[in-house]
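Our preliminary data section would be incomplete without showing what the modeling component actually yields. Below, a chain of 318 amino acids is followed by its predicted structure, encoded as tokens that our downstream tools consume directly.
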Amino acid sequence: MPGGAQARPEGGGQKALVRLERSLDAMGTTYTAALYGPDRFALDAALEEAFDEVQRLDLQMSNYRAESEWSRLNREAAQGPVRVSEETIELLARCLDYSRRSEGAFDITVGPLMKIWGFYKGSGRIPHRAEIRTALMRVGWRKIEIDRKAGTVRFRSSVEIDPGGIGKGYAVDRMAGVLKRLGVQRGFITAGRSSMYAIGAPPQEPRGWRVEIPNPRDSRRVEKVYYLKDQSMATSGTTEKFFAAGGRIYSHIMDPRTGYPAGGMLQVSVVAPRALDSEAWTKPYFILGRTWAERNKPKNFEVFLCEDRLENACVSLP
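Predicted structure:
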């Protein structure tokens, strides 16, 4: 966990804070939380409830569970409207909003392209152009129709929704909400290596939880340091999932408009108030590049990006 913090007394005469750190495997990744507070039993109970929330989301959103709402949509929504929970309606509505604002660079239906490029199996391959054209016919956020009044979702053709681009961020936000509601004032949550949220600040570091961003070409070098306090951060880059072929590196970050992996960027980190936002926006900024990010970044976001060039490759967009 960032910061390397240890439990210490917080000020003269105050009860010493205890530190609790636990992990949970769910939704295809590992969720870890490090919490500080005066009562270990209260921390343990709060974290147990936060992990219960992640497991609930796994049952609701997982594409690997036939009984989940998202799997049911993928099976039935092309045939007609499917009634789903208000939570699923709201989350899909946010995804469609990300797609509109990113000019289609974010797309919750990108799954068929990820499959033919081999990224789901962990062994990449370059598909034939005919395969890409066929997959693109099954991709498109505009094919999703939401009827809020009826509480239904319909697909205008056979597309698939995949929580891979937003699921971790949403779960981290929900964990943070549970912990705050139960009185946790200091904590750090991570989902894998790419999505995180800081509650308050750790003992002895009022600036916040220290997070180091390594250089994408040399992980031994620290390129940027952030101190997060009631903020989220997500990072996407070419070092997460990739394969090499014909002298080129193909990243797992797919441009859903072209059907090909995005190029020109090595790594993007986004600091935002919510983990759902930071995770979702790393992909459009990676795909659309620095100039687009400078013009379209919300004022309360910070973006740190490293372009695929030799000099002055990394830049911060405050």
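The longest strand covers residues 18-26. The CA atoms of residues 199 and 230 lie 5 Å apart. Preliminary results of this kind motivate Aim 1 of the renewal.
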